[in-house]
Amino acid sequence: MKRSSPHPFDVSVGQRLRAVRRLKEVSQADLGDAVGLTFQQIQKYEQGQNRISASMLFELAKALEVSMSQLLGEAAEVQNETMRLVDGAEAAALLRAFQRISSPRVRREIIHFVEAVPDIWSLE
Q1: How confident is the model over 24-30, as a mean pLDDT?
Q2: Which residues, other chains included, contact 111 with Cβ-Cβ below 8 Å and sequence gap of 6+?
Q3: Is residue 45 within a helix (H) or strand (E), and if so which, with residue range?
């Protein structure tokens, strides 16, 4: 049976690939160069238009310094939701900055502040 649209699993893997790539601040061209592909092929993978072979998934994960399971989505649904949340430039930048903070106390304070921001701005 031939599909006219991408399989939902291929789309999901592609979305995770894109989210991880953006989080790591790697361009499609740079990722393609690292694994011997064009940026157009990376684009097709990210859109779920082309399936990623097991060996290519291994190479992509290695180039991005993540596990294959992170790209496949074998982890809990919470991880999938997290990947959707970080699929944006601002969210990725915020996470990168947060990772550089070594003090647990400062991290907790920042979390409390960020959680309060929607309530503060809704009052205006």
Answers
A1: 95
A2: none
A3: helix 39-46
* 118: pLDDT strictly greater than 90: no
Written as one string, the DSSP assignment of 25-66 is T--HHHHHHHHT--HHHHHHHHTTSSPPPHHHHHHHHHHHTS
State the CB neighbour count (10 A cutoff) for residue 24: 15
Q: Supply the pLDDT for residue 91.
A: 83
Query: For 1-87, which CATH superfamily applies?
Result: lambda repressor-like DNA-binding domains (1.10.260.40)
Domain positions in the chain: 1-87, 88-124
Q: Kindly state the tokens that stand for 2.
A: 């031939």
Tens digit of each residue's pLDDT (9 = 90 or more) over 68-117: 888 887 644 545 566 666 677 788 888 889 989 999 999 999 999 988 88
